[in-house]
Specification:
The complex is a heterodimer of chains A (about 290) and B (about 280).
Chain A lengths: L1 H10 L1 H26 L3 H10 L1 H11 L3 H25 L4 H22 L3 H9 L7 H30 L1 H7 L3 H23 L1 H15 L6 H26 L3 H19 L5 H5 L8
Chain B lengths: L9 E10 L2 E11 L4 E5 L6 H9 L6 E5 L8 E4 L13 H6 L3 H4 L9 H10 L15 H15 L3 E5 L7 H16 L3 E5 L3 H7 L2 E6 L1 E7 H4 L2 H9 L15 H9 L18
Parallel strand pairs in B: 3-7, 3-8, 5-6, 6-7
Antiparallel strand pairs in B: 1-2, 1-4, 8-9
Helix pairs in contact in B: 4-5
Classes of the chains: A mainly alpha (about 290), B alpha/beta (about 280).
C-alpha cells in the first residue's frame, strides 16, 4: 500500500519534480486564495489569469517556449491590469469587479490576437494546460521563489491585510497602509498566477489557488484555521492527482484540479462547519 | 488610559463638501475649539455625515479647506454611521476592537501587552465575554458597542461620532454617554452627530445646527430655539439638477471666517435654489 503511494515518486525523477512544484504552488497559492475568497474576489483570479495571456504571448513570440520570457511577459501584463483596475476602482465610481472585467477583456482579446498572428493552437493548449510532468530546474526555482515571496509578503502584511478586508474605511482613517496593502495583495495574486501559469498551466494555477481555499471554509471557522486547512487540502489534492494521473495515464493538471474538486464536493457534504449533511440532521438547539 | 494629549482644534474656511458638484455642506466657516463637546444636529440630508467625512479627509472639499492644525490622520478617531464592515469575514470581537490599537502596535508589534486594555474597553461598553464571538454573530447594537470600544482604544485627540447611539438601548446609551463625558473631561475634542434634541440639550454644551449651511452655531440653549429649528427645516434637501454654478467668491467666505463661528452671513443672493 505504502509502496503504491510512494513508488512513482521514488522511481521517477519527473514525478519528484512535479511533486516539488505542486508543493511550492500549494504552500503559496492556497493562502492567497483564502484571502481572495474572503474578499469575494474568487472570480477575480480567473479573470486575472486571462489578463496574463497577452504578456505571456509577447514573451512566447519573442523567445519561443522559454519560461523566463513568458513569465516576465505575464508578470508585466498581470501587474499592469491589476494596478490599473485597482487604481480605477479606488478613484472612480466603478467597483473593483467591473473595472477588472473591463481591463481583463481588453487584455485577453489582445492576447488571442497576438497568438493567432503567429504560433498554432497546439501552443495555446500548452499554455492553458501546462507541463507539470516536464518541470525543469528553472521552473522549480521559479515556483519555490514565488512561494517564498508569497509567504514572506503575507506574514509582513498580515495585520493590515486583515484590517483592509474587514473594515477598509477604518484602515484608511488611521493611516496610509490601505492603498499599499491592497496593491501588494493584488501583486501577490498575479505573482502566483503567473508562476503557476508558466510552469503548470492556467487551469492548475487557478484551481490550486481557489478550490482548497473554498473547501477550507467547511473545516475551519477563523483565519488561523482556514490558512493551514487550505494548504493541507491543496497538498492532498496534489499528491492524489499526481498518483491518479500516473496510474491511469491521465493528464496531470486536470487530474490535480479534479482531485481538489472531489475534496470540495466531499467537504461540502460532510464538512463539520456547515456541510449539507449537518443541515439535514440538525442537532437540538441550546439553552442560551 | 494614559493621560491624554490635549484635544485638537478643527477650523473650517469656506468649506464646501459635496457629491458630483452639488454641495452637501455649503461655505461653512468656523472653529471647533480644542477640548469642546459639540453636537451636530439638523434634518436628513443636511450634510452632517458629509461634514465628518470631510474632517477625516475621506472626501475632498469642492472648495475651501478643513484646518487640522498639528493633527495627524491617526489623531482623529471616527465612528461612521454605516461602517463598511464585512461582517462575513471570520474575525472575533477581540480582533475587531484591537484594531483600535493600530497607532501603538502598527503592523508588527505584539498585541499581548495590550490585552488588558482591550478587555477593559470591552468591559466599558458591556461586551465582556464576547471576545471570541465572530463579528457576524453580533446584533446591530452589539456591533455598534464594539465599534465604540474600538474608538475608546484609539485614544485619539479628536473623536468624531456619527449617530453613535442609533440602535442602542437606553441603558447602554447612558453608559456610552458617560464615556463621552469622560473624554470631554480628559480634554479631548468630541463632535457627535445626533438626532435626539433632549439628549443634546442635556449633555452637549455647544451645538452646530446644520442645514447644508450653518443655521446657528454656539451654546446649545441659544442654538436650539424653535425659530432656528424651523429655519433649518425650511432649507430644502432637494438636489436641484439645474442648479447654476455657485459664484460666491472664495474671498467672501474668507471674510466671513474672520467673524468667527456665526459668520456665515455674507450676502447670499446668488441664484442657488437652496433658500427656497
Amino acid at each position: 500500500m505504502i509502496d503504491f503511494l510512494t513508488a512513482p515518486f521514488v522511481e521517477f525523477s519527473f514525478m519528484r519534480r512535479a511533486l516539488a512544484g505542486c508543493v511550492a504552488l500549494s504552500v503559496g497559492a492556497a493562502p492567497v486564495g483564502v484571502f481572495l475568497t474572503l474578499r469575494r474576489m474568487s472570480l477575480m483570479s480567473e479573470a486575472m489569469s486571462h489578463a496574463i495571456l497577452p504578456g505571456a504571448a509577447v514573451g512566447f513570440l519573442w523567445a519561443g517556449l522559454s519560461l523566463p520570457a513568458m513569465t516576465l511577459g505575464g508578470l508585466v501584463a498581470g501587474l499592469a491590469v491589476a494596478l490599473l483596475s485597482g487604481f480605477v476602482a479606488r478613484s472612480t465610481v466603478l467597483r473593483e469587479d467591473a473595472s477588472l472585467a473591463a481591463f481583463y477583456l481588453i487584455s485577453l482579446a489582445a492576447g488571442v490576437l497576438l497568438i493567432s498572428a503567429r504560433g498554432s493552437s497546439i501552443d495555446l493548449l500548452h499554455i492553458l494546460f501546462g507541463t507539470v510532468l516536464a518541470l525543469d530546474d528553472d521552473a522549480l526555482v521559479l515556483l519555490g521563489g514565488i512561494a517564498t515571496v508569497t509567504l514572506i509578503g503575507l506574514a509582513v502584511a498580515y495585520r493590515p491585510l486583515v484590517m483592509e478586508c474587514v473594515d477598509p474605511l477604518f484602515l484608511r482613517s488611521v493611516g496610509r497602509a490601505s492603498g499599499p496593502v491592497h496593491y501588494a495583495f493584488l501583486a501577490l495574486v498575479v505573482l502566483n498566477l503567473v508562476g503557476g501559469f508558466a510552469a503548470l498551466g492556467t487551469l492548475l494555477a487557478v484551481g490550486l489557488m481557489l478550490l482548497p481555499a473554498i473547501t477550507a471554509r467547511f473545516w475551519a471557522l477563523d483565519l488561523t484555521g482556514l490558512l493551514p486547512a487550505a494548504v493541507l487540502l491543496a497538498l492532498s489534492a496534489s499528491v492524489a492527482g499526481l498518483l491518479v494521473s500516473y496510474y491511469a495515464s491521465l493528464p496531470t493538471g486536470p487530474a490535480i484540479v479534479l482531485a481538489a474538486g472531489v475534496l470540495y464536493l466531499a467537504s461540502m457534504l460532510l464538512g463539520p462547519r456547515g456541510g449539507l449533511v449537518w443541515r439535514l440532521f440538525p442537532a437540538r438547539h441550546l439553552e442560551a | 488610559m494614559r493621560p491624554p494629549a490635549p484635544g485638537g482644534t478643527l477650523g473650517f474656511r469656506g468649506l464646501t463638501l459635496g457629491y458630483a458638484r452639488h454641495p452637501a455642506v455649503h461655505h461653512l466657516d468656523g472653529t471647533i475649539p480644542a477640548g469642546s463637546l459639540t453636537a451636530v444636529v439638523g434634518p436628513n440630508g443636511a450634510g452632517k455625515s458629509t461634514l465628518l467625512k470631510g474632517i477625516i479627509g475621506e472626501i475632498a472639499p469642492l472648495e475651501g479647506e478643513v484646518a487640522r492644525a498639528g493633527l495627524a490622520r491617526r489623531d482623529i478617531a471616527y465612528l461612521p454611521q454605516a461602517a463598511e464592515i464585512d461582517r462575513a469575514f471570520p474575525v472575533g470581537v477581540f480582533d475587531l476592537v484591537a484594531m483600535g490599537l493600530w497607532r501603538r502596535v502598527g503592523p508588527w508589534r505584539s498585541l499581548t501587552p495590550h490585552r488588558a486594555a482591550v478587555e477593559a474597553a470591552l468591559a466599558a461598553v458591556g461586551l465582556t465575554g464576547f471576545e471570541r464571538r465572530p463579528i457576524g454573530t453580533l446584533s446591530g447594537g452589539q456591533l455598534r458597542r464594539a465599534l465604540f470600544a474600538r474608538v475608546l482604544l484609539q485614544d485619539a485627540r479628536v473623536i468624531l461620532l456619527d449617530e453613535p447611539f442609533a440602535a442602542i438601548d437606553a441603558r447602554t446609551t447612558d453608559e456610552l454617554l458617560e464615556l463621552v463625558h469622560g473624554w470631554h473631561a480628559q480634554g479631548r475634542t468630541v463632535v457627535a452627530v445626533l438626532h435626539d434634541l433632549d439628549q443634546v440639550a442635556r449633555h452637549f454644551p455647544s451645538t452646530l445646527l446644520l442645514a447644508r449651511e450653518a443655521v446657528a452655531w454656539g451654546a446649545t440653549p441659544e442654538v436650539l430655539t424653535t425659530d432656528n429649528l424651523r429655519r433649518a427645516r425650511r432649507l430644502c434637501e432637494a438636489w436641484d439638477e439645474d442648479a447654476s454654478v455657485c459664484r460666491a467668491a472664495a474671498d467672501a467666505a474668507r471674510h466671513a471666517h474672520d467673524q468667527g463661528p456665526q459668520g456665515h452671513d455674507h450676502p447670499h443672493d446668488h441664484p442657488h435654489g437652496h433658500a427656497a
